[in-house]
Design goal:
single chain, alpha/beta, Rossmann fold, 2 domains, four-stranded antiparallel β-sheet, 10 strands, globular
């Protein structure tokens, strides 16, 4: 079953085509990677799916229901959560309070303020490897842990589909390996993952399928092995 279906998705900024008739799908339980050169339209696709942008044309269906043009909080409460390319944490708040906000955005206010929400938040922090840092201000976390905090905050909304936008960018090889393990653990909990990433080791190792964009258009789709052998992808992105 496809949890996400995108057909003919278009978005223009003046004369620039950020998404030009993009067709793709994500099946329930998959880890799907979205790659391409800078400016290819990857984050635009995420912004359209999450409601940060409204498409000029095309359709976006989540669990068979059209969601294009809906507000971000409506989409979040339907079961889609995301992280951001540039880390967006509430710097002066503790890690615990950052994740509690995920509960607030993902459901009713009274649910976010309960003792059960706090317990679940602590469980999520342990799951992502931040158990001992719940009282640490977000601004005092290293980059890798700020990225984990964003993932934790997204998971607090209990998503069915998680959009990860370059969660491994800027990390050391050891941190990348740890993040790869975390993504696989998330999938094991039943959450479907759709991820943008430039770290090819990660994309090629953990994704079931990969979609490649270039100038807003999909130029290839397939398994990691199929993508690395695709001549068009090699020419425009991977290099010889």
């Amino acid at each position: 079953m496809n949890i996400l279906e995108i057909e003919g998705l278009c978005k223009y900024f003046g004369g620039l085509s950020a998404a030009a008739g993009v067709d793709l799908h994500v099946a329930e339980g998959e880890i799907v990677g979205l790659i391409g050169p800078n400016g290819a339209g990857k984050t635009t696709v995420f912004n359209l799916v999450s409601g940060a942008l409204v498409p000029d044309s095309g359709s976006i269906r989540f669990k068979g229901i059209a969601i294009e043009g809906r507000k971000p909080h409506e989409i979040r409460r339907r079961g889609i959560a995301r992280t951001f390319q540039a880390v967006k944490v509430f710097s002066n708040m503790s890690t615990l309070d950052n994740v509690l906000l995920g509960h607030l955005f993902g459901g009713a206010e009274q649910q976010a303020m309960t003792d059960s929400a706090r317990r679940e938040t602590e469980e999520i922090l342990e799951f992502v490897g931040l158990k001992g840092m719940k009282e640490t201000r977000a601004r005092d976390l290293i980059l890798a842990n700020q990225k984990r905090l964003e993932v934790a905050r997204a998971l607090a909304a209990r998503p069915h589909l998680l959009l990860l936008d370059e969660v491994m960018a800027g990390l050391t090889p050891t941190e990348v390996a740890s993040s790869m393990d975390l993504v696989k653990k998330i999938r094991e909990t039943g959450v479907t993952v759709f991820m943008i990433e430039h770290v090819m080791k990660a994309i090629m190792s953990i994704c079931d399928r990969i979609v490649v964009l270039h100038h807003g258009e999909k130029i290839a789709e397939g398994t990691a092995q199929e993508i690395v052998q695709n001549r068009t992808v090699i020419e425009v992105y991977l290099g010889e």
